[in-house]
Design goal:
about 625 residues, mainly alpha, 2 domains, two-stranded antiparallel ribbon, 20 helices, 2 strands, membrane, transmembrane
């Protein structure tokens, strides 16, 4: 019940981590089945229809349900600590964000149990995603599941924007914020502007499928290209929503384990902001082959190539941070250092794809598959592994085993490059994306075998990581506040794991790398900005759980309203929208209760705070 009702940002961060890890395993199993099917020519591990479902669900799960929650896990666990805040701005809304994401992801994956799985690709292009080619409820699971999950992401982004703007500790100016907090701030701004586009697209898709709307149905005056524009106006900023937090993590980890201030801090801040801004100006580089014309293609080519400039600034700054530093090769730092050349490779192929004439050749080939996996897995996932190893002791009070961590890195890193490096050549040799089998004698056999072996090596790396988690959590919670002994930012100035109220006294920030600055001045802890006194805390609540559960039930009710049930009672309940109504009643009833019940929260008293600090009354 404690975990169902919590509004503590640290516990919500752990919930995001558990849920993201769960969906990560599901997406990974889907990927292994895809690679098993393609390991050799004309294999029949799965049918063509199942392969399309695996491909669709793998992409959708990994982007929306695995990567995003792990990003939000680290943002929840760390950002309030880095800015010296006691919580996020809206703890109740933070809980709503998690539970709506979770129930949306659950609804999407229930499609496997029902046996009506989305199979139109993770981008859901029309007419494939329309009622003519995706009958049954398959793409309804996609549309409604992602709408519910998207609510959680959107309110989470708004929450972090308000938190970072309003709740920084005294002296924590914007240009003293750690890079991870900066990346979370700009990511939240991207979420605010990008996710409404996805919401509009998914609602119009639902109208097309459930109520015979004609937004994307060409026969009735709609156009599938409109969906492409709507999807990619969200979809390309989404790439930066995913990668910017990884950039922030790498900045923190490399700085800490080089025992040096981050090189070119202000240029890193402006580069991050510029990447976020340009991210909204490049969506049609996914659409060079749709016939937009030479002017549009040229503009989007130029804008795409421009993004390489601020990204290059970041790469050089990370290298210069390490230059002359006292580098420690911890597991977290290995992932961070491995990230740099891997992401550069993904960026280089991105610039190749940005040239419209070249893209006509690369488009819909395995070259593109290799490119975006180098960016998302070689970039984002390596960054997330680095962040999880780095902040695990702060979240759980015990560090991950270093030997197992390094083994995870080498197994996953080598497996990754085996899997995706050869796919560039498969694409150049003519292998198209989304094919479930291929003939012998095309010259693709060996490279596909190598790619599949690499994928299973990544699976082994993931298993080692899970073993590491189980092992570490069985150990006593003995992590020090400054676990790595070279902590530079505020989260390392408090015990591990952090107490419920984070800071007994709000810290006074006197410069960038605030805790490092205090340590260099000979202080063992931060200078307080206030005397010790009672701390106000928000009360736990079950209402966010029920609000989200209501949306889950309502989603089912709307999806199956036109379904033909064998059971007359079921048919009557769904066809008269009773189930949908009950779900909405639960959601709006919970909102009503939240509005009329005035919960003043509670206070943690001074003697309890002193007891936590080991000071006798």
């Amino acid at each position: 019940m404690d975990w169902l009702t919590t509004v503590d940002h640290k516990k919500i961060g752990i919930l995001y981590l558990i849920a993201g890890g769960f969906f990560f395993l599901i997406g990974g199993l889907e990927a292994l089945l895809i690679r098993w099917q393609l390991m050799g020519p004309e294999k029949d591990v799965v049918s063509a229809e199942t392969f399309n479902s695996l491909l669709t669900m793998h992409g959708t799960t990994m982007i929306f349900l695995a990567a995003m929650p792990v990003i939000f896990a680290l943002m929840n666990a760390i950002v309030p600590l880095q800015i010296g805040a006691r919580d996020v701005a809206y703890p109740f809304v933070n809980a709503i964000g998690f539970w709506t994401f979770f129930f949306g992801g659950l609804l999407l994956n229930v499609a496997w149990i029902v046996g009506d799985v989305p199979a139109a690709g993770w981008t859901a292009y029309f007419p494939l995603a329309g009622p003519d080619f995706s009958g049954g409820k398959s793409m309804d699971f996609y549309a409604i599941g992602l709408q519910i999950a998207g609510i959680g992401t959107l309110v989470g982004g708004i929450n972090f924007l308000v938190t970072i703007i309003n709740m920084r500790a005294p002296g924590m100016s914007f240009m003293r914020m750690p890079m991870f907090t900066w990346s979370a701030f700009i990511t939240s701004a991207l979420i605010l502007f990008a996710f409404p586009a996805l919401a509009v697209g998914l609602v119009t898709m639902s109208f097309d499928r459930m109520f015979s709307g004609n937004f994307f149905v060409a026969a009735n005056g709609g156009t599938g290209v409109l969906w492409e524009h709507i999807f990619w106006i969200f979809g390309h900023p989404e790439v930066y929503i995913l990668i910017l937090p990884a950039f922030g993590i790498i900045s923190e980890v490399i700085s800490t384990f080089s025992r040096k201030r981050l090189f070119g801090y202000s240029s890193m801040v402006f580069a991050t902001a510029l990447i976020g801004f340009l991210g909204f100006m490049v969506w049609a580089h996914h659409m060079f082959t749709t016939g937009l014309g030479p002017v549009a293609n040229s503009l989007f080519s130029i804008a795409t190539m421009l993004i390489a400039v601020p990204t290059g600034i970041k790469i050089f700054n990370w290298i210069f941070t390490m230059w002359g530093g006292q580098i420690r090769f911890t597991a977290a730092n290995l992932f961070a250092i491995g990230f740099i050349p891997t992401f550069v490779m993904g960026g280089v192929t991105g610039v190749m794809l940005a040239a419209a004439p070249a893209d006509f050749q690369y488009h819909d080939s395995y070259f593109v598959v290799a490119h975006f996996h180098y960016v998302i897995v070689g970039g984002l996932v390596l960054g997330l592994f680095s962040g999880v190893h780095y902040w695990w002791p702060k979240m759980f009070g015990v560090g991950l085993n270093e030997m197992l961590g390094k083994l995870t890195f080498w197994t996953f890193f080598i497996g990754f490059h085996l899997t995706f490096f050869v796919q560039h050549f498969l694409g150049l040799m003519g292998m198209p994306r989304r094919v479930f089998t291929y003939l012998e004698g095309l010259g693709w056999d060996t490279l596909n075998l190598v790619s599949s072996i690499g994928a299973f090596a990544m699976g082994v790396g993931t298993i080692i990581f899970i073993i590491n988690i189980v092992y570490s959590l069985s150990q006593p919670r003995t992590a020090k506040g400054d676990h790595w002994e070279d902590g530079r930012t505020l989260e390392w100035s408090i015990p591990s794991p952090a107490p419920e109220y984070n800071f007994a006294q709000t810290p006074l920030v006197r410069g960038y790398d605030a805790f490092w600055k205090e340590k260099m001045a000979g202080n063992a802890e931060m200078t307080p900005a206030e005397p010790i006194g009672p701390i106000h805390m928000p009360s736990p609540s079950i209402l966010p759980f029920f609000m989200s559960l209501g949306l889950f039930i309502a989603g089912f009710g709307f999806m199956y309203a036109e379904n033909e049930f064998m059971n007359a009672a079921l048919a009557n309940l769904f066809s008269s929208y009773v189930v949908a109504g009950v779900g909405l009643l639960i959601t709006f009833g919970s909102m009503f209760l939240r509005s009329v019940y005035d919960d003043a929260g509670f206070h943690i008293e001074e003697d309890e705070i002193n007891k936590d600090r080991g000071i006798k009354a």
